[in-house]
Amino acid sequence: MSTEFLGQVAAPEIEIPSLAKGAIFDGFKRRWLRERRRRKVGRAYDMALEIARAIPRGSKVLDVGCGNGFIAHHLSAMLGVSVVGIDVMPKTEASIDYRRYDGVHIPLADNSVDAVLLCYVLHHAQDIQVMLTEVKRVLRRGGSAIIYEDIPETLWDRFICWTHNLQWRKRTGECTFRNESEWAVLWEACGFEVLKNRHLARLRNLMHPVCRRFYLLSETQTLRAS
Predict the structure, then answer these.
(1) Do the Cβ atoms of 116 and 72 come closer than 8 Å?
(2) How many domains does the chain have?
(3) Which of 7, 25, 74, 194 has the greatest CB tally within 10 Å of its CB?
């Protein structure tokens, strides 16, 4: 057989059966979903650790807008008491004491919890003063509100907040992001004082790199005395 003929012989094509392609795709999909869940659970655990340092063990806690419920799930173990989670969704992923929320009235009795969590929730509130009034109603005397919020500090932050609003406005309504001075005015108007105010790293969530702050609030002394 001549070398000229050998050069013209095409390499055989290897076809991957459609079933095998589907199995490969499904394998990648399952791995991706596992990794996403692992990151989600891990972020919730880190936040729960941070929150647990600000709340005495045994405190009764309400997580408003609990989302997947993993923060409440981790906190229940850390505090030794069941944490209640509420949200507008029909159910949550984590196994917690979950109650449906109508977005206006918190489904708990007056003076029934020691702490309320609002983790990246307040910018979704359509009437934030009503929400904070409800928070004060369910808090016991000496209770605290723990708040995480995105702060549009720079042009980049404002862009990230804008994209977040595009993603959520059809589900929860328009988002309202406030800077530090605007939050300070709102806390005072709603009868809260700031016990702690701490800057958080932008890269806590690589998919949402924005300026964040942690607030620990309590009812103002004058209101508690009255």
Answers:
(1) no
(2) 1
(3) 74
Query: 112 lies in a domain?
Result: yes
Q: What is the reported pTM?
A: 0.81
Q: How far is CA 28 from the centre of its chain?
A: 26
**118: containing domain:** 44-225
Is 221 a domain residue? yes
Amino acid making up residue 93: E
| CA dist list (Å): 117 to 93, 99, 133, 203 | 18, 15, 14, 22
Spatial distance between the Cα atoms of 226 and 224, rounded to a whole number of angstroms:
6
What are the residues whose beta carbons fall under 8 Å from the beta carbon of 74, sequence distance 6 or more? 44, 45, 48, 49
d(CA 26, CA 72): 31
More confident residue, 25 or 135: 135
Q: Beta-carbon neighbour count of residue 190 at 10 Å? A: 18
Angle ∠(94,99,101) on CA atoms, nearest 5: 115
pLDDT tens digits, 64-93: 999 999 999 999 999 999 999 999 999 999
